[in-house]
Structures are given as C-alpha cells and as structure tokens.
Amino acid sequence: MEDLRKINSMQLYYLWRNLAISLLCIGLVMCGSHMVPFYMAPVVSLVLSAMLYTMLWNNSVTGERGCMVVVETMLYTLVCYTFLSILLVVIQVLGLYSFPDEMIFFNDPYLPSLLLLPTGLAVTLFALFFRNHMPSYKRFRMVYGNERERGYFGLISNKEMDIQLKNLAVVFAVLTAVVWYYYLNVYVSINRNARDWYVFVWIVVIMVILDEIFFMIRYYNLYLDLQEHNEIITPEELRDVTARTYLRFYVICGEYMYMDRNAFDRLNQVKGVIDTPFITKRTVNGIPTSEVKPIVENMTNLKGGMLKFFFGRPLAGVDKHTLLRYFYFLDGDISDYKDLGMPGEWVHFDEIKRIYNDTPSKMATNALTDISRLSTIILTEKIFDEEGYRKNRIKSYRGSLSLADVRKCELDLQDDKWLRIADFNSDTRFFRLKKFLREISGRRNGSPVRK
Predict the structure, then answer these.
(1) For the chain: N or C, fewer Cβ within 10 A?
(2) pTM
(3) Which of 326, 323, 271, 225 is nearest to 4 (CA)?
(4) CA distances in angstroms from 152 to 156, 178, 266, listed in the order given
C-alpha cells in the first residue's frame, strides 16, 4: 500500500501549468487590449475564454490534467468581465448612466484593468467559498473520488488548490487596490503618459510573471522534497511499473465489523487509527471475483462466508494500480469467530459510526472514505428517488444505516449515481429551476450526459 503515497511527477507539472495558464490569461487580456483596436477588447477575452473552455472540455473527457478549478475560475472571470464591459456600454448607450471613458471599450484609451481585476477578485472569492460546488471539481471527484480516495496526491492537491485560489485572490486584491488608487488619485485623463500605461498594463503583467515564477520554484522544491523521500514516480517509471491490484476486505458478522484499533494509516503516516486489518495486494491487473474469495478465506481462516463487492478505483496518476474494496459477511455470532488470524477485535457498527461522526481523525483515511461512500449511497437511496425527489415528505427524516442494510443492499455501490443525487436533490435551493436548466443544457445530476 506504500504506492498510495507515490505521486506522478506529471501531476505536479499540471498543478503549476493550470495555474500558469490562468495567470497568463490576465496578462494577455492586458497586452491584447492595449495592442488591438480598443473596440476589439471584448474579442480578446472571448477568445481566451474559448481556449479555457476547450481545456476544460478536453480534461472532462480524458481526466489527465487533474482538477481544473483554477482554470474554471479564470474562465468565469473572463466571461463575467466580457459581459460586464458590454453591459456598461449598453447602459451608457441607453442613457441610463454615464461611466468614465476609460471603462467603455468604445473609447480611447480603454483600461480593462479597471474592470477585470475587481471582477477577478469577486469570482475568486466565490470559488474559494464554493469550490466543492464547481462543475470541474464535482466531475473530477466523481471520476477519481475525493481527496482521500486519490491517495497522497489527493491530500497535496487539495491543499495546493486552496493555496492557488488564495494566491489569485491576493493578486487580484493587490492589483485592484493599486490600479484604482492610481486612477482615483493620480491619473489625469487629459495628460496621459508612460507612467499611466505602466500602472494600468505593465505592472499587472509583471506581477503575473513573478507569480508564475514563484509557483514554478515552489513546485520544483516540492518535487525535490518528494523525490528525496521516494514519493515520486516519473513517466518513465510508469511505463515500466508492474500492474498491481490492492484489496481491502471488511469482515462483518451481524452488526459487528472486525477492525484493528491500532492500525497504521499509510497515507497520513499516522499510527493508532482504526482500520480493517485485511489488506493485501497482488501483482496482476485486476482479479476475478472467483479468485478473490479464496484470498479472504485464507486471510481469515474462515470459509463459507458471503463475499460482496463494494467498489474500486484506479490510483490517480498510476493507471496500472487499482484499489478494490469487498465485504465478507459471516453467519452466526461473533462468539463463533474469536481468532481471525489478524490483530483486531469485533467493533459494533454504532461505535464505528460514532467515531466517524465525532472523531474522524481516529479513523484511517481509506476507512473514513469507504464508510462515507457507503452511508451516502444507502441513505440517499432510502430518502430520495432517482429523480432527486424525497420519497417521504417529512424533511426531517434522515434514515439510518445498519450492516444488515449493507448485506441485503442490491444497489451498485460502484455507481456514482446516488452520490450525484446526494449532492443535488430536492433539498437543494431552487431545485426545480436548476433541474430544468440542467435538462436544457444536457446535464443530469451535475454531470454531463454522455451517449
């Protein structure tokens, strides 16, 4: 399971590249609007928006370039800026309000920084607070799982995404303050000079370049640090890597689950957490179910149990490595199974749920992820139908989960359908309106409809 801490070096590159392209768009809008005729300024931002949208679409198909929240944030920034600049022109043409000439792209000079920078600040702050609801984040999470399921890189990328968004917010905030202070207190429209262009255009470009260099150095140092701790896998090594399938078994008897209270969490490198002790690996690419049951029978020294597939995912960045989860149900009473050949004890599922809710830090990362997925799918199916409407009109009804529910459950726990319904259902504000808009745009439960 140590490979869960391996990070594909290309993943670090894409972390920087996505941010670099987003920052580059700011500089291109500044330079482009200064170089082309002023009335063509919205065309520059629209072209860049189309480029970013193409990147998002290609990534939604391949998923190779990681989470694109920063790129999506910049796309929204450029789109909002474009329509805002057009809206100001329309308002002025209609005689509803008169804006400064520098904010209207039909005038010369037109200063896009006056609109773009505060717009970028507003959009980035929105992304910071509502990142988990952004389409690109949802799509990536559905394909590769949450940050815990994506292994060690998931934990790093989640942290870096926050840092990148906060960095964008700071960049936009500082530049907005500088540009607007200069415009209100220093700038004289009848006596424009080189200093004006330096503040309104080139100081923005320079800060963008410096920021890109800063993150280039940051990720190079991160790469060296991970390489020193043998946590990097290069594309060359990936081509030669041996296919491996990791197996996790949850052994269940009645309402008890056999767990090790002093397990070692390989993702967070923490000992003393609760996890299943039945973990193994095979150097093969996938294992038929018929071959899985003998493995858990040998590990537990118990035969005759019922094996049930839970779900599996490829490890993000290491396509030849897969992590599969299974349930192994035993009949009778826990007193019949005192020695399972592994360190651990029978723990009542109510206690596991209490640890999950009250002190999740005491649970191993993968166990926490698995319990979260299991409870979300089963409870969502109990509460909502496939269209996202409540089966029971009592909104306070939340349902309960037991291991008996897990055993008799006939849902496909590999399918993310119920996770999407849990994320978007009739308890969501303006559900009917949003659902109607999604149906028009060809999206269902927050994901693109693919034929």
Answers:
(1) C
(2) 0.71
(3) 323
(4) 6, 39, 9
Task: At 167, list the tokens.
Answer: 């960095």
Whether 272 has a pLDDT exceeding 80, the answer reads: yes
Which of 267, 263, 378 lies closest to 323, judged by CA?
267
Q: What is the pLDDT of residues 323-376, one digit of tens each?
A: 899 999 999 999 989 888 889 999 999 999 999 999 988 998 889 889 989 999
φ/ψ of 131, rounded to 5, equals: -55, -40
pLDDT band at 242 (very low <50, low <70, confident <90, very high): low
Residue 429 DSSP code: T
Cα distance between residue 305 and residue 300, in whole Å: 10
- Say if residues 15 and 219 touch (Cβ distance below 8 Å): yes
What residue type is 154 in one-letter code?
Answer: G
Q: Return the SS3 of 93.
A: helix
Structure tokens at 108: 């010369």
Q: Provide the 8-state DSSP code for 441.
A: T
Please write the tens of the pLDDT for every residue from 80-100.
999 999 999 999 888 888 888
Beta strand pairing status for 256-265 and 345-348?
Answer: antiparallel
Tell me which DSSP letter residue 396 carries: T
Number of helices (H), then strands (E), in the chain: 15, 11
| CA–CA gap between residue 115 and residue 204 (Å, rounded) | 13
Yes or no: say if 240 and 234 are a contact pair by the CB < 8 Å rule: no
At which residue do the structure tokens 């693919």 appear? 450
